[in-house]
Amino acid sequence: MNIIQKLALRLLTSGDSKMRAYEHAAFRRIRNELCDDAKSVLDYQLSKMNLVQRLSNEKEVNLYSMAGPKKPIKLDLLFADQGEERLLATLTIESASDRKFKITATVWLVRGQIFSLIFDKPPLKLMDDKYIVSSCCLHIDPMRPNSLEHMAIPGTTPIIDRLNEIYPVSEITPPLSEKILKNGRSLDSLKLPLEFRELLCEASSCRIGHWRILGAEAREVQIDETELLIIAENSGSANLCVIQNCDEPILTTYNYSTQESHQLGQSFIDAIRKLNPAHDD
Q: What tens digit of pLDDT does each residue of 215-272 get?
């Protein structure tokens, strides 16, 4: 066995055998939001997890079911949505002693199986402190195949209602009957923020303040080496775009007149809030 093979074997076998208390707390909170069938799948999968790897200063927690080195267990129970990668839930965890300390965590499925818990900052403070899982938002129904096609989940707030809290939404048109843009491109072939996909399930286009959300009229452009999908435009020459040639869908503004751009992150709601500063809290 060469050095590369030894390192790979060490990576596949190193880690803890159990989750930490705050990691368990995150899954308990998610469990409370699931239907009975999904609860059974979650309980089964977590009972089979016997290898926990923590990476990137413990911000990334990956969960495995292993029968031995390089021998993953084939699970008998999977969630019905067996897409390549699905964002199941977003949670907020707060320190009970210091309420200013908050961590956002996301839980991801891969091919119908719980795979990772990702924190936005190192969670080590939670090891020596009491904490509260103060919020949990499900992004999909894991017991529904191809759940990204059906983003409205019982118990969650419709995306238009959430946007209305930032700036009144008007000129709403019916949602797309097919997941295809007017230029013929399938939505599945494009990188889009999850919240924007939710919006397309409620409206094919709308207006938020000075911004017209294009929906089915979204169009692709290339600026130098950057591939952009324009998803909104305002009355001037500014556009809200999603960068396509990167690993994750990144929102950015682009102004044709000045040729200036400014990245806004991955949240469509946060981008709308930044683009309408007069309506911030």
A: 888 989 888 888 999 999 987 678 999 999 887 789 999 988 888 889 998 889 889 8
Q: Domain 159-279: give its CATH architecture.
A: 3-Layer(aba) Sandwich (3.40)
The pLDDT value given to residue 5: 44
CATH 3.40.1580 residue window(s) in the chain? 159-279
Structure tokens at 217: 């009229």
* pLDDT for res 180: 74
- Among 122, 123, 128, 152, CA closest to 139: 152
Question: To 5 degrees, how large is the angle CA 250–CA 63–CA 89?
Answer: 45
Beta bridge partner(s), residue 212: 207, 233
Q: Which residues of the chain have pLDDT under 50?
A: 1-12, 150-156, 279-281
